[in-house]
Amino acid sequence: MRFIKTIPNIVTLGNLYCGFLSIGMAANGEFKNAAILILIGMMLDSMDGRLARMLKADSALGKELDSLADIVTFGVAPSFLVYYTYFFQFGILGLIVSGVFPLFGAYRLARFNISPPKSSLNYFIGVPITAAGGIMAILTLFGDLIPSIITTVVFTALCFLMVSRIRIPSFKEVPLPKYGTIVTIFLGSVLYVIYKGSYGPFPDLIYIAIPLYIAYLTYRFIKGKNKKEID
């Protein structure tokens, strides 16, 4: 029984480990794989909170662990990915600029953590770091088709949008994991990359994560639908 209670934290740690692996792969020049690992981390992030509620395993430790994982996987990892794929040509200045992304993301996370619980029921204040990191990963995944200037503009915009006061709908009442739109784009991106078949080997985790996550999406949809019928 105690092991079941730790499952959400294990999923969160999986998210963190994806961020670490992404940084390592980016450093080795495997940029597509690095981007995919960030997106896998995004999938895991969308699961841990719901798993904690399903298993009645919510805890202060889990919330702190989630924030630490998010800053690595969706803050530090995307910034390294952008640096190695584009900003490296500007030398030390490019490294400094790349480091701004996790700074804004960390501030956004800290602000979210101290906000009243009821304030986040229907909307987020500022773009969530998970969505920002996922967008940067997707742009890198299709880097061959997207001009570098667009990536730079989006990178800069996301930095400021994360700490902005703009209200972003949370879609928590939708019977799918948060950031469902980004997840859908991720699945489409994976199919595209596999179809191209020219980017080298993928992390083995991706062949396990996708079927499991699709099954999870199906379960959440059916459960949400049945709940409405009961009501």
Automatic annotation (TrEMBL):
<dbReference type="GO" id="GO:0008654">
    <property type="term" value="P:phospholipid biosynthetic process"/>
</dbReference>
<feature type="transmembrane region" description="Helical">
    <location>
        <begin position="201"/>
        <end position="219"/>
    </location>
</feature>
<comment type="similarity">
    <text>Belongs to the CDP-alcohol phosphatidyltransferase class-I family.</text>
</comment>
<dbReference type="Pfam" id="PF01066">
    <property type="entry name" value="CDP-OH_P_transf"/>
</dbReference>
<dbReference type="InterPro" id="IPR048254">
    <property type="entry name" value="CDP_ALCOHOL_P_TRANSF_CS"/>
</dbReference>
<keyword id="KW-1208">Phospholipid metabolism</keyword>
<feature type="transmembrane region" description="Helical">
    <location>
        <begin position="176"/>
        <end position="195"/>
    </location>
</feature>
<dbReference type="InterPro" id="IPR043130">
    <property type="entry name" value="CDP-OH_PTrfase_TM_dom"/>
</dbReference>
<dbReference type="GO" id="GO:0016020">
    <property type="term" value="C:membrane"/>
</dbReference>
<dbReference type="GO" id="GO:0012505">
    <property type="term" value="C:endomembrane system"/>
</dbReference>
<keyword id="KW-0808">Transferase</keyword>
<keyword id="KW-0443">Lipid metabolism</keyword>
<feature type="transmembrane region" description="Helical">
    <location>
        <begin position="145"/>
        <end position="164"/>
    </location>
</feature>
<keyword id="KW-0472">Membrane</keyword>
<dbReference type="InterPro" id="IPR004533">
    <property type="entry name" value="CDP-diaglyc--ser_O-PTrfase"/>
</dbReference>
<dbReference type="GO" id="GO:0003882">
    <property type="term" value="F:CDP-diacylglycerol-serine O-phosphatidyltransferase activity"/>
</dbReference>
<keyword id="KW-0812">Transmembrane</keyword>
<feature type="transmembrane region" description="Helical">
    <location>
        <begin position="7"/>
        <end position="25"/>
    </location>
</feature>
<keyword id="KW-1133">Transmembrane helix</keyword>
<feature type="transmembrane region" description="Helical">
    <location>
        <begin position="121"/>
        <end position="139"/>
    </location>
</feature>
<feature type="transmembrane region" description="Helical">
    <location>
        <begin position="92"/>
        <end position="109"/>
    </location>
</feature>
<keyword id="KW-0594">Phospholipid biosynthesis</keyword>
<dbReference type="InterPro" id="IPR050324">
    <property type="entry name" value="CDP-alcohol_PTase-I"/>
</dbReference>
<protein>
    <recommendedName>
        <fullName>CDP-diacylglycerol--serine O-phosphatidyltransferase</fullName>
        <ecNumber>2.7.8.8</ecNumber>
    </recommendedName>
</protein>
<keyword id="KW-0444">Lipid biosynthesis</keyword>
<dbReference type="InterPro" id="IPR000462">
    <property type="entry name" value="CDP-OH_P_trans"/>
</dbReference>
